[in-house]
Amino acid sequence: MLSIRECNLQRLYSSAPVTLPALGSIEAIQNNLTLFDLLLLDAPSLKTLLLSKNRIHKQPWALTKYTQLQVLDLDYNRLTTFDLVGLAGLNQLQSLYVSFNQLETFTASRKVRLPSLKTLALISNSLQSLPTYDRWYLPAISFITLVNNLFTAVPLLYSKRWPTVTLRMTNNPLACSSLQQYVEQILYQQKLIVDLVKCGNGTMARSKAGGL
User: Fold this and answer.
1) Whether the predicted pLDDT of 204 surpasses 80
2) Cα dihedral sign for 190, 194, 198, 200?
3) Through-space distance between the first and last CA atoms of the chain, rounded to whole angstroms
């Protein structure tokens, strides 16, 4: 394990080729990272990459060679856009966390397959839609959280792609009319989690608890 926490680190990169065959985890949490580039690092056993609470504003694109990666945490950074194509080939990836960023776009610029991904967390961003969901091939996905974004309707990925997934959407300005088709999922299956208290003037009334 390589653990670098609270060290005011601004850049993490490899200036020359290096091989660390036993390295299973990199934890560079709560630094001031703006640059993360491990293009020259060969770490065939890397399973966990934790980069939360930094200042990363550009999506790391040198990750596809870490084919054993299971957890990628980019929470609390400054990303405004994220392209799933940057993770293509990560067939073991199970959890992706890109919460508490500044995401306006979460997309796939072409079809991408992540066969092991189970959890996708995009809490507290500025997302209004997920228009390229038809390019996402995520056969194992079971939980998606979009809490505290700007959605006014449930994304079509839920009804047309993964109707059995648990989707958490509290703290979004959802219109009541957009929820009518999901009564069973909300009230009985509890697969779609929203702030359903009352619908009076056409806008969802938010619960006091909120929750993530």
Assistant:
1) no
2) negative
3) 30
